[in-house]
Amino acid sequence: MATHKLLLLPGDGIGTEVMAEVKRILAWLEKAGVASFAVEEDLVGGAAYDSCGLAISEEAMKRAFAADAILLGAVGGPKWANVPYESRPEAGLLRLRKDLELFANLRPALCYPALAGASSLKPELVEGLDMLIVRELTGGVYFGEPKLIQDLADGQKRGIDTQVYESYEIERIARVAFELARTRRNKVVSAEKHNVMKTGVLWKQVVSEVHGAEYEDVVLEHQLADSCAMQLVRAPKQFDVIVTDNLFGDILSDVAAMLTGSLGMLPSASLGAVEEISGRRRALYEPVHGAAPDIAGKGVANPIAMIGSLAMALRYSFGLAEAADRIEAAIAGTLAAGFRTGDIASPGTTVVGTSGMGDAVIAQLEKAA
Ligand code: NAD
Fold first, then answer.
1. Residues 175-228: tens digit of each pLDDT
2. How is the chain split into domains, by residue range?
3. Which CATH architecture does the domain made up of 1-109+263-369 adopt?
4. For 46-69, what is each residue's pLDDT tens digit?
5. Cα-Cα-Cα-Cα dihedral of 283, 166, 177, 107, to 10°?
6. Which residues are known to be catalytic?
């Protein structure tokens, strides 16, 4: 059995609490003979700052480069509000994303049947929803130059952001989307604004070319990003994979997130290029939520987003799709059995803490085994 190198970076606040449940599940997977892991652990964020004055140490960065996948809890909190800007907790996460060149952000929106009632949409619209937004993360209008506010001669000001994409950036994100679609329901919707934006024209053209040359077996549909937003709240179950740029992806992924209920339920992945020598793809998995200082240390945080991030790592970095399915089924079973952390509790359910939720997921894994 291959041994997978995993780096755990629990971070701050509830990051350490939800990561503790992931460690228990890793131990269970090993004991059950499902997989073998070489696990290392290091500090990031405020915890790293307290230890070495940096948001992430050089040693931790080395470990990040050597790992097959990184699992990160969350960073930040009021304790570090006044540390120097370049050492603030978020700088550790940004450095990881930048140095590892993680250009593809994957945000699944999965609606567990037992939580369909928690969505802002009608339950029948979201029950069984299983879609994935692939957002370009390192280009587009958030990074394009020029980016400035100018003083004009007449006393007015002019703000400028530049939306810019080169074809290689579109090609590589399109490939990620098509590859992922092949492991799912084989459909990609590409969202842009070719009716009013040159980058949209290029985006549509390049995605079509990549599709025609390499992925004709995948169904490709183009949608204008505004129409895609409308379809997301009208009939979200029509989507399998959506691929889109940094700006539209920022917005569409938050819309998709709210279809499924709580922040505590949402995992994510950020993927980089496939390394030439090792053939592995750099990858960092983390819950969408932050360090939640308001509930940190109370043992009440929902660990499902973190456990779901582990499932994503098994599926996308380690080729262990069956183990990922087992974990997701165990989460669904836990919810169907009525267990809830405070953030997703409703009348008639059993409220448990972080470790209680971990216990329930492991009990479901045991039951299925
Ligand atoms: P947050 O996601 O930490 O919390 C928002 C709200 O959701 C809070 O009320 C919190 O209690 C609740 N919540 C979040 N995750 C939960 C979970 N697993 N279970 C139950 N409830 C949960 O966002 P915030 O309050 O805006 O930020 C807090 C700190 O986290 C800040 O320092 C921020 O910079 C940082 N942050 C980090 C990341 C990251 O590490 N990727 C992301 C967002 C925010």
1. 999 999 998 999 999 999 999 999 999 999 999 999 999 999 999 999 999 999
2. 1-109+263-369, 130-259
3. 3-Layer(aba) Sandwich (3.40)
4. 999 999 999 999 999 999 999 999
5. 60
6. 142, 193, 226, 250, 254
Nearest Cα residue to atom 6 of ligand 1: 292
* Residue 322 burial (CB count, 10 A): 10
User: Which of 289, 298, 300, 307 should be mutated for ligand 1, with most atoms under 8 A from CB?
Assistant: 289
Same fold, 1-109+263-369 and 130-259: yes
pLDDT in tens, 302-323: 999 999 999 999 999 999 999 9
> How far, in Å, is the centroid of ligand 1 from the Cα of 288?
8
pTM of the model: 0.90
Whether ligand 1 lies within 6 angstroms of the CB of 88 is answered as no
Beta bridge partners of 222: 190
| 263, 285, 286, 309: residue to mutate for ligand 1 pocket, most atoms within 8 A of CB | 263
| Integer Cα distance of 109 and 125 in angstroms | 13
Return the CATH superfamily for domain 130-259.
Answer: Isopropylmalate Dehydrogenase (3.40.718.10)
Q: How many Å lie between the centroid of ligand 1 and the Cα of residue 347?
A: 24
CA 289–ligand 1 middle distance (angstroms): 5
